[in-house]
């Protein structure tokens, strides 16, 4: 414990996590009205980060399981930090869902009132299974009596579940027929592809960070190999996005053109273009050359850009869907905001709602990220620093 308290990363992130916990108590007292969410945009920053964390959790588990499934023996060297990273990210994803629940005291109804026809129920089941697999995987890898055969068995379940958890998360959006921007069969492949590149990028950053602090040494050759795999995933991700944009634009339907207008020049355009330019094009151009993949600084820059780009991707995926209301006609939409409750008819009804995260929302989200950083640092120091 003393050594942990001397780690500035643990202390700093722990303080931010406690601040976030305090804001969560404040949110419990006054409700989700303190956030920027309303009846027009009912999913906000919390669930955007949920999508982001679910994707980030993929890289670690896929790299760890690939060592056994595909016989890529060199990946065994980083299997333990990869599984730790995957476990922390999926736990943070669960926390994002919990803070988004307005009535946390009724969480037990998620089990007793489970509707198996709902993609939300599928997601809860598969994420729970994913968490269990991570825990079992970590136990077998850290146990003094660890059996390589048992680790190999778990890895064979881990890979398909990792793909399934991202597919089911995508189906929560893709099966929404009333949302033009989400209702597409290619959304699940897009989610899986972006999960692969963001998860691998975060793993590379984590390995570089652990090596810099002397906690865990990863050879340059292995990071170079991961960077090459990351480059391939970036190309696949870009291909899927291009397919979706081309199909939507070529058909020229009214709803599709409205989505493209929002995405390319509208409210979510900054997120889209940042992801395309900084999250796909620049990292691909950096990593496509073998010489650059041997430069650890360039690999780190490319990985950081990919992670930031995928976060922007989660933003434009989420909020482009809310840009076009699925209830048309006067007098409009009841926003359910504080102004609507206390004002007159002009405040009650609106043709279009506007969403922007509030300060408490942002602080609580930062607290969740800090909690993840703190948990990863503590687990790595305990399990890797032996």
Mean pLDDT across the residues is 86
What's the alpha carbon Rg, rounded to whole Å?
Answer: 21 Å
What's the helix-strand series?
HHHHHHHHHHHHHEHHEH
Low-confidence stretches: none
- In DSSP terms (H or I, runs of 4 or more residues), the helix count works out at 16
The largest sheet is: 2 strands, antiparallel
Summarize the model shown.
With 386 residues, this protein is mainly alpha-helical. Helices cover 73% and strands 1% of the residues.
Structure description:
- With 386 residues, the chain is mainly alpha-helical.
- It contains 16 helices and 2 strands.
- The chain has a two-stranded antiparallel sheet.
- The radius of gyration is 21 Å and the shape is globular.
- The chain starts with a helix and ends with a helix.
Task: Name the descriptors.
386 residues, mainly alpha, two-stranded antiparallel ribbon, 1% strand, globular
């Amino acid at each position: 414990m003393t050594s942990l308290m001397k780690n500035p990363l643990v202390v700093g992130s722990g303080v931010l996590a406690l601040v976030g916990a305090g804001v969560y108590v404040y949110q419990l007292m006054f409700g989700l009205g303190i956030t920027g969410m309303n009846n027009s945009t009912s999913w906000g920053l919390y669930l955007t980060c949920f999508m982001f964390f679910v994707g980030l959790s993929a890289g670690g588990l896929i790299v760890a399981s690939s060592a056994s499934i595909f016989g890529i023996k060199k990946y065994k060297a980083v299997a333990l930090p990869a599984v730790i990273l995957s476990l922390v990210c999926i736990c943070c994803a669960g926390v994002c869902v919990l803070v988004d629940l307005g009535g946390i005291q009724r969480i037990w109804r998620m089990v007793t009132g489970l509707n198996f026809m709902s993609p939300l129920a599928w997601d809860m089941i598969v994420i729970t299974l994913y968490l269990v697999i991570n825990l079992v995987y970590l136990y077998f890898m850290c146990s003094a009596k660890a059996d390589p055969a048992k680790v190999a068995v778990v890895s064979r379940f881990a890979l398909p579940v990792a793909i399934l958890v991202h597919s089911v998360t995508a189906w929560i959006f893709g099966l929404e027929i009333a949302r033009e921007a989400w209702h597409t069969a290619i959304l699940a492949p897009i989610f899986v592809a972006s999960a692969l590149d963001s998860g691998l990028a975060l793993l590379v950053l984590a390995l570089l960070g652990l090596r810099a602090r002397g906690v865990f040494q990863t050879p340059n050759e292995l990071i170079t190999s991961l960077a090459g795999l990351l480059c391939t995933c970036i190309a696949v991700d870009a291909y899927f996005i291009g397919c979706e944009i081309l199909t939507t634009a070529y058909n020229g339907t009214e709803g599709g053109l409205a989505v493209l207008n929002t995405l390319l020049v509208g409210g979510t355009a900054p997120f889209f273009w940042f992801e395309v330019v900084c999250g796909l094009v620049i990292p691909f151009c950096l990593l496509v050359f073998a010489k650059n993949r041997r430069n650890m600084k360039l690999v780190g820059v490319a990985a950081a850009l990919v992670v930031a780009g995928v976060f922007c991707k989660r933003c434009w995926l989420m909020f482009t869907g809310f840009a076009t209301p699925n209830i048309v006609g006067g007098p409009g939409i009841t926003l359910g905001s504080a102004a609507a409750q206390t004002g007159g008819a002009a405040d009650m009804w609106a043709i279009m709602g506007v969403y922007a995260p509030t300060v408490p929302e942002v602080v609580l989200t930062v607290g969740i990220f800090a909690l993840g950083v703190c948990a990863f640092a503590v687990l790595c120091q305990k399990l890797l620093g032996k």
